[in-house]
Structures are given as structure tokens and as C-alpha cells.
Write a structure and sequence with these properties.
The complex is a heterotetramer, with two copies of chain A and two copies of chain B. Chain A is of the alpha+beta class. Chain A contains three helices and five strands, in the order βαβααβββ. Chain A has a single domain, classed as Ubiquitin-like (UB roll) (Roll), CATH 3.10.20.30. Helix content of chain A is 26%, strand content 26%. Chain A has a five-stranded mixed sheet with strand order 2-1-5-3-4. In chain B, strands 3, 4, 6, 8 and 9 form a five-stranded antiparallel sheet that branches. In chain B, strands 1-5-7-2 form a four-stranded mixed sheet. Classes of the chains: A alpha+beta, B alpha+beta.
Chain lengths: 81, 133, 133, 81
């Protein structure tokens, strides 16, 4: 299954505002960061510190299923204010 | 009732403050974050703020709703785009019946905004460009 | 550097806030006390504030000086005379490098003003006239 | 020795903005409130809750000597802000 992932801040600067990613069948939230780290090893550490958001909510449960229509984003540590 | 906005328009601090005035409140606490020149030995020239705006507004709603449910009024505005020294980046205002709760809730809101709301700063310092920590 | 004033002129909150802006500060916390309509079952119509102005300004200086000595800027203004609902009675603003100290010092200043600065309120409520407690 | 005492808030409303008071020779701060309470028994309680200020400073030491040129004031519990 292919999903589009929104990226922000330094991640967006490095990889672009969105990347497409192939996931195994019946993916869960836990699959996304490892798949991105495999695809983009140069930003492995940046990906590790980012939080996953699905449909504009931080994901609290790694077992949350991901569907192709979900809005998926990686949120680097925020620094507003 | 509360007002939450993320926008590239410069913050109109006085208009935001005026939204908090009401006969039912006796204490209004506001926090304004501005672009500071020096952080230790690092000199900042400008800051560019970016956001994931739809999610940021949802997150602000989640922060403000329980405070408003206690009877207070909340006004939060965050600027995005290019800011110069002393420009206002964020306004957080709480009006409440009594001052102790206005202080407590205003500080809670800005502290939580700084960890839970997807907004990022990119500082142009004299020696380097830095993403905020 | 700090600005302390006791005056019958209506408070110009925006002008007072502007005095706090400076490239060396990143956080500005302000407290504004306004005339509230209800205190439990008591409905306030107007408040008259009076002061011992010379001593009040001396006391404000004593409060503000140690905060400014820590590198912050303090602006305090208190109105005297006849105030209506939502009129601003007091403005306390602190600009500091970081927000935690701006919150702490602003709250300290208003808390201490309320016990140590000779200003008094005389409330005209719907049922009686009351001197503040 | 006669001194003039400034009064404020409810005390000023009851007794006027200033009252004149006769004190024994070589008076100290401790003499003022009792002498006022004797002269104005109707506001004895209000006087008890007020703080003494000399030359626009709260008096910390009851033994402070009072001179005829001092600016003396009684400060009822304040309620600004």
C-alpha cells in the first residue's frame, strides 16, 4: 500500500514537503517510521525524534491501523512560541 | 467564545487584548513572545516560523477548551512567516474572574503550546541558520 | 528604566505594553485588573480608587527595583478616581529574557502591590457602598 | 508635642483627611495609635487594623522616635489592583 507523508521543518527541508512510501499490507502506525528510516537512512536520527500524526492527531497507539486515505504527517520537535 | 488563529499577518496585540475584556472577568494575563536578539553568544537576526496549520489549530482547540470550560476566556494567536527583532511571534491571553487562575492557565497554555502545537522556528543567526530546539 | 505611575487618566494599555518591547527580551507577561461586575451575589456598579500617591510611588519603586536589577523591565500603572465596569484599574508588565521569570515576577509584583502599596477601592454595589478588603 | 496625621480610605471618610494629635514629650511610633484610639474611640477597631507610616515608609520599629516635622500617616488595609 502506498501512502503520502507530510514532512515539516528540517525534515521537510531535507526530503521535501511530502514523500510517498510503500508499506506492507494492513499497516499500522508502528510501520511508518521504520519504513521511512530504511528509505532515507541519511535522516534516520531526525526521523527518530519526530512524532507521528494521523489525521491531524498525534498517534498514541502504535497498533493504530493505517489506511490509504489517512492524512499522515511526521512532526519534528516543535519550537513555536 | 475563544479565539485561536495562526496567520502570517502581524499580531495586533491590542485588538487581541480587547477580545479578553468583559464585565465577568477581573483579571487578564497575557504572554507575548517576541524575537530576541541574543541567546548566550548567538545573535539572532530574523526568524521564520512555519506550521502545520490545520493540525496546529486543532491542537490549540484541545488546549483552550478545558480552560474555557472552567469559565475563563482564551485568546491565542501565532504568527508564521518572516519575523524581525522584537516582532511578536505569539500572543496567549486568559481572562478569568480572579488573577491566580489567569496566571496559572496562561502559563499552562504557553508551556503546552511549546511542546504540543506543530509550529517550528528557523533562526537566521549571524553565524548560522538553526532550526529551533 | 522602569515606568511607574499613579494617575486619574485612563490606562493606555497598548502604550504601556509598547514600553516593554526590546530586542533583549523574549517574553512579556502583563496583568491587567479590570472592574468586575459580580463577586458572588454582590453586583458592583462603579469603583472609586484613592491613593496616598507619594508613598504609593515610593512603594512601587521598592518593588520594581530588585526585579529590574535582575535584568528585566517593569512597567506598572494604577488608576485612581471613578471607574466603570471593565475599566482598567491596574497594569503590571514584566519583560524578561525568558518566560518563566516574566510570569514569576509579574505575579509577585501584583500580589505584593495588593498588600504593600497604599491604594484603596471604594465599591458602589447595588446594595451598599463597600471599602475594599 | 502636636503632630498632624494623614488618614485615608474609611478612616479619612470618618475623621477627615488629617487630624491633629497631642503626644507626650519624646514620642515614639508606639505612642501614636493608642493616642488616636483614646481621642477617637468610635474608630478604635479601624485604627487597630491600620499600619503606621512615617515619611512615606511603613514603620518596622515601634521604638522609632517621632519628630514634629515627620510626615505621619495611618494606612488602612490596602485594596488596590
Amino acid at each position: 500500500m502506498q501512502v503520502t507523508i507530510k514532512l515539516f521543518a528540517m525534515l521537510g527541508e531535507q526530503l521535501g514537503a511530502t514523500v510517498k512510501l510503500d508499506l506492507p499490507a494492513a499497516p499500522t502506525a508502528a510501520d511508518i517510521k521504520p519504513a521511512l528510516q530504511t528509505a532515507y537512512p541519511a535522516v534516520r536520527q531526525l526521523l527518530a525524534t519526530a512524532r507521528l500524526a494521523v489525521n491531524q492527531e498525534f498517534v498514541e497507539d502504535d497498533a493504530q491501523p493505517i489506511s490509504a486515505t489517512d492524512e499522515i504527517a511526521l512532526i519534528p520537535p516543535v519550537s513555536g512560541g | 467564545m475563544y479565539y485561536l488563529k495562526i496567520s502570517p499577518t502581524p499580531l495586533d496585540v491590542h485588538a487581541l487584548y480587547e477580545k479578553l475584556k468583559d464585565p465577568q472577568y477581573g483579571g487578564i494575563v497575557t504572554f507575548v513572545g517576541t524575537v530576541r536578539q541574543w541567546t548566550g553568544d548567538i545573535e539572532t537576526q530574523t526568524i521564520d516560523y512555519s506550521a502545520y496549520p490545520e493540525m496546529a489549530e486543532k491542537q490549540l482547540n484541545k488546549l483552550a477548551a478545558p480552560i474555557e470550560a472552567k469559565g475563563a476566556r482564551v485568546v491565542i494567536a501565532h504568527r508564521v512567516g518572516h519575523l524581525d527583532l522584537t516582532d511578536e511571534a505569539v500572543f496567549v491571553g486568559v481572562a478569568a474572574a480572579h488573577r491566580a487562575e489567569a496566571f496559572e492557565w496562561c502559563q499552562y497554555l504557553i508551556d503546552t503550546l511549546k511542546t504540543e502545537v506543530p509550529i517550528w522556528k528557523r533562526e537566521t543567526d549571524t553565524d548560522a541558520v538553526r532550526w529551533g530546539d
